[in-house]
Amino acid sequence: MSGTQGQSLVDTRCSLQAEWPCRVLGTADFGQDMQGRAIERLSLNRFVVLGRVGMDLYADPPGTRIEEARQFTSAIGGSAGNIAVALVRQGAQAALLTRVSDDPVGRYCVAELDRYGLDTSLIRVEGGEARNSLAVTETRAVGCQTVIYRNGAADLALTVDDVPASFAEVGALVVTGTALATDPSRAATLVAMERAKRAGAVLVIDIDYRAYSWTSRAVAARVCLGAARRADIIIGNDDEFGLMAGDQAKGPALAAELASHAAFAVYKRGAEGSVTFTKDRSFETPIFPVDTLKPTGAGDGFMGGLLAALTQGHSLEVAVRRGSATAAMIVAGFGCAPASPDTAALDRFIAGR
Questions:
Q1: Please, are residues 201 and 28 in contact by the beta-carbon 8 Å criterion?
Q2: Are the beta carbons of 183 and 191 closer than 8 angstroms?
Q3: Beta carbons of 133 and 78 less than 8 angstroms apart
Q4: Is the model's pTM score more than 0.85?
Q5: Cis amide linkage into residue 184, ω under 30° from 0
Q6: Which of 50, 85, 193, 309 might form a disulfide with 322, Cβ 3.0–4.6 angstroms?
Q7: Domains defined along the chain, listed by start
């Protein structure tokens, strides 16, 4: 997948200075069956995932508290990086659209993505004082501590010039909401969304709200809701839908309302499982009980497993169940990307339940 820039596909009447450019209608906006169109497009099995990748350092051995650790084990992290790995592990093709720091940590992240089989041609290097995300964390089910360093985040330096000119051969653009937190990344993400829509690609958003990345909850709510209203598939947890609705109690109603104009929305409820909304129905999906090693990575795995299943022709109900199973396997394993199952392992896990 080429990262070469070409003629802009954004309508010149749209202002890139506006928080939300005018709506550019593409093939994904027409027709009677939005869910059917989305699933058909996903069968291209090619994804671009926009957002951060970073380094995770786990206190080792599992169960060790950070302040007591004498050694740490590294793995890649970051929601976009984890989603992309989950997709590739389950047979999809995925490219990460991001910026990494011009230092050994940035090079580590790219090398790990290469090792997992991702397309890294859309990754650009940000020099100067920019740094990749670094998370120092623990493998503990209860009381898990995580310290995240996001000063001068390289991924938030993504620019409009980094965005591919065309998404014509892409099944879906997957946007992680943190990329919308600030400019220039916000402007670049909005352009990517419009170009993907124009090309007929499915637009997927993981709300991925991280308070430390935003100037305020009000800004996050407004921007994330604007993005969700443009998306074909909306994934978020109860806190994130509550953020956008202005009240957590109103979150399910907002998810249902968004789904009425989209392919579907998934409202995640932690240990209570999830509710999937479409235009004309909803259904609940339970979690897979496991012996949890850590609480992190479930949402990223859920997204990757769900989308990969749809590319394989599974029904929406089965796809959500496979997403839930992927999440369970990740929280039961070491690390996020390292614990992400391949298709065969996922099939065995589900068959045994």
A1: yes
A2: no
A3: yes
A4: yes
A5: yes
A6: 309
A7: 38-351 (3.40.1190.20)
